[in-house]
């Protein structure tokens, strides 16, 4: 049976030479590819063919990579399981009765199943790290501003980054080396990443590394996940690292803050899909607003509508101070907690996901439960920090991911620490 | 529960603001879900005030003319065009 990892399977060849020559790469379907349809997992964009390449796609081609298709995803990146795709769910190659995680589930499944050597995903609240953990591969969410978002179909601009998924830490770091760096078409990019060599940092040397473990990230995790997590930390300790508990009280408010901010930004970003310039028009009668509203009723799935409506509500008169302004306070608090933690430790560690992969269909009926599964990943996006998910054993035959979070532009440190977990 | 319960009328109002039509089943379902989710968002009431130390700077570049999409490329995904323009529904 097919895993349904790809929405569009078509090959784009890169240049003849380069660091990724001979490598096949799956690209998440919210990243624009010139001449190759880019659907964002949505019926709204079923026939949309971008007239230009995203910066990361240009970089892939220049590096000699062969793009082998557009990977399945939760619609517009909204989901934790890749079940909200209008093109059907992707299956987890480790256990086909389970989800691959989301929203970059197609990217992670393609790599885990060997259907691509490498993949690009996007991470707004954990969407690279979650499927990497569920599929037993490596995923990196870069520091905000390290990788250009030009050509990424926006969901929540202040939170999302494009990043690599690979079978190994070194492979993920090498792909990050190709896509990192400033871009004059994305004003949020920084000079960091120019001439980077993150792959060289995958040397497994953790002698003297200090790891902070926030109790708030471990409490409430599934028992088998917690056992695998502590075993991985003991292994790092045996290699010369040391760990200590740290407290980050803010993270208990992070999920609420994340969803308020992400939904608010989504309600604004998705206003562009009007069925006139692009998107399904439906050809409805009536005035602009009526035709527009009908087209969006047809084109968007439930989770996307839910987030647009909740975001519109959170920004509406009378509720802005209660929800959006408070969420920004919580965001500053999370950032402050991380800043204080990094005064004492080099990296912060947690289970990537507090639970093993869900059964297909299990979480769809309860969106709030699905949102809570992101508790360990969303604080990283709120603080705009880098983080990696690396396989750290199993529970009942299902993969467990270890998340290592670094200070701003501390990609080398998390790559080094994660490579020791592979030893 | 939230202290701002959302009824079906309020869901219809927000859907109208967001320009998304909903069918009646969706209105009922969303009203029920919103109460749960907004109730959960009430946890933000306990967030303390935090000094924000971000030094925000505007990032500017010279406003120089450069190549963009051709008119044909810009129109390539439009359902309807006329004389090189996008054609939309009437505005009133």
| Overall pLDDT metric of chain B | 87
| Number of helical stretches of at least 4 residues of chain B | 3
The end-to-end distance of chain A, rounded to whole angstroms, is: 33 Å
- Specify the CATH class of the domain at 8-45 in chain B: Mainly Alpha
Largest interface: A-B, 61 and 50 residues
CATH topology annotation of the domain at 8-45 in chain B:
Histone, subunit A
Oligomeric assembly: heterodimer
| Total beta strands of chain A | 11
Helices and strands of chain B, in order, run as HHHEE
Strand order of the largest sheet of chain B: 1-2
| Biggest pleated sheet of chain B | 2 strands, antiparallel
Overview of this structure, please?
The complex is a heterodimer of chains A (423) and B (92). Chain A is an alpha/beta fold. Chain A has one domain (6-249, 332-422): Alpha-Beta Complex (Amidase signature (AS) enzymes). Chain A has helices at residues 55-62, 105-112, 129-135, 169-179, 215-218, 223-238, 254-269, 288-299, 302-315, 321-344, 367-372, 378-382, 411-422; strands at residues 6-8, 24-28, 66-71, 118-123, 138-141, 161-166, 210-214, 242-246, 347-351, 387-395, 398-405. In chain A, strands 1-3-2-4-6-5-10-11-9-7-8 form an eleven-stranded mixed β-sheet, with helices on both faces. The model of chain A has no long low-confidence stretch (mean pLDDT 95). Chain B is flat and about 50 Å long. Chain B has a domain at 8-45: Orthogonal Bundle (Histone, subunit A), CATH 1.10.20. A two-stranded antiparallel sheet of chain B has the order 1-2. The model of chain B has no long low-confidence stretch (mean pLDDT 87). In chain B, 35% of the residues lie in helices and 4% in strands. Chain B has three helices and two strands. With 92 residues, chain B is mainly α. The two termini of chain B are 40 Å apart. In chain B, strand 1 and strand 2 form a beta hairpin. Classes of the chains: A alpha/beta (423), B mainly alpha (92).
